[in-house]
Design a protein that fits this description.
By secondary structure, the chain is mainly alpha-helical. Helices cover about 55% and strands about 5% of the residues. The strands form two sheets. A two-stranded antiparallel sheet has the order 1-2. A two-stranded antiparallel sheet has the order 3-4. The protein starts with a helix and ends with a helix.
Amino acid sequence: MVEDSGVHELLQQWAAERSDDAEMQEVNRIKNAWLAEAPPSSTPGIPMQRGSRGGSSRGLVKVDSADPAYVAAMRKRAPEAPEALLAAAASYWQLVGDIAEAEQWWDAGISPLDQRALDYRAAGLTPADLGRRLGPMTVLQHLRRGSAAAWCVARLQRQRRDGVA
């Protein structure tokens, strides 16, 4: 497995954002007061679509925040990560890809816990692209130094067009 130096930094940032400083305590107090005023709901859901006859529907379709299989797969890779962070990352990945794809990104050097992995994917990069060379550095090295994913995609396409890659 390729060691992703960004995972440790991501965990530190996540923990710092959730520290119990005075501001966060006030935010949590306001949030809890607001939630206490909201009507009780047993589970989160999405309003159901209208029936075939055009009548209005009542009720909600149950929504699970994260597939337990995704959370378990991420827990194997980052056992020190908080459950809430794993569930958040898993909920994003289950929208766009399967567990195997998330693990391919991780093996290539980008943690699925890092939101940028989804941005790179949306730009057109694949896990296999991260190891390709663009000049003296790999795509992954360019990304870690701040190059835009779109720039890397354009360079890869030009290499393919010119027959270099």
